[in-house]
Amino acid sequence: MPSGHDARLVREDERGRSPRSLRRIEDFTSDAAHQLRTPLARMHGELSLILARAGALDGEARMQLERVSSELEAHLQTCARLLLLAQLDGGVLDRQLRSEDVDLVMLMRELIELVTPLAEEKAIRVERLHMGAPARRVHCCKALLVEALFNLLDNAIRYTPGGGRIDVAVLRRERHVIVAVSDTGPGVPAQERRLIFQRFYRGALGTKGAGTGLGLTIARGIARAHGGDVRLCSPSGRGATFQVRLPVA
After folding, report:
1. pLDDT digits over 147-190, tens only?
2. pLDDT of 212-232, one tens digit each?
3. Rounded CA gap, 249 and 246, in Å?
4. Which of 187, 204, 196, 189 shows the shortest CA–CA distance to 239?
5. Which has the closest alpha carbon to 74: 214, 220, 180, 238?
6. CA angle 26-29-32, nearest 5°?
7. Which of 8, 51, 93, 155 is most buried when burial is the number of CB atoms within 10 A of its CB?
8. 100-247 is classed in which CATH architecture?
9. CA atoms of 235 and 99, how far apart (whole Å)
């Protein structure tokens, strides 16, 4: 995946591109993800069958096959994210959203339960703030919102050092509901603040080799498809606070 420097060059290059040129890039991304997903899925399925039937494999051989299976699964997830990103870029999801009223307090409680084991592996505490009554509802596609909010929580865990803390709050501000995810990580350097929402960009202070650099891009795209946004709302060098702002139901 591109480094921070490469992502900056891509971003600067895109400024001079015409809408038609950008559309071609989006189409290529979608087509490439489609073309890659089918053979990857087939290989992953065949490898799963081999693992299920190969009871006589020695321990080292099985570990190698399981490692390959995990890599294939990770690449399949990347393809799925690229396809989602292409749909967000093309405005396809805006027309296809199946929305329902969702209580963000309840949803965040469920997501915190989901990510707590990941946080505990690094001795990170996840604190729930301002998550009592009343309910804070938004009208949204729940599956997509789960994707966006999970990305923010996962990002916070990746960038928070062992023994740190992540605070999650759900707030009502006039006609919006805000989900704030704050961590005690290194924060976002001033020179990276304009780049972090660019696809494939991974901050220099994060866990080396972790992530695809698509999480924040997708989270913001999903929020904007619902009439909201995702913003970085913390000063440089003091941890990071990301806010998802969505219209109330």
Report:
1. 899 989 999 998 899 999 999 999 988 889 999 999 999 888 88
2. 678 888 889 889 988 999 999
3. 9
4. 187
5. 214
6. 145
7. 155
8. 2-Layer Sandwich (3.30)
9. 34
Give 248's DSSP letter: B
The answer to whether the CB of 241 falls within 8 A of the CB of 184 is no
Within 10 A of 209 (CB to CB), how many other CB atoms are there? 7
pTM of the model: 0.68
How many whole angstroms separate alpha carbon 222 and alpha carbon 102? 15
The token pair at 2 is: 């591109």
Residue with tokens 């399981």, as numbered in its chain: 66
Task: Write out the E strands in the chain.
Answer: 100-103, 125-129, 137-140, 165-173, 176-183, 229-232, 241-247
Return all residues near 103 (Cβ < 8 A) that are at least 6 apart.
135, 136, 137
φ, ψ at 203 (rounded to 5°): -60, 150
Q: Is 1 helix (H, G, I), strand (E, B) or coil?
A: coil
Q: How many CA atoms lie within 13 A of 164 on its CB side?
A: 21
The shares of helix, strand and coil residues in the chain, as percent rounded to the nearest 5, are: 55, 15, 30
> In terms of residues, how long is the chain?
249
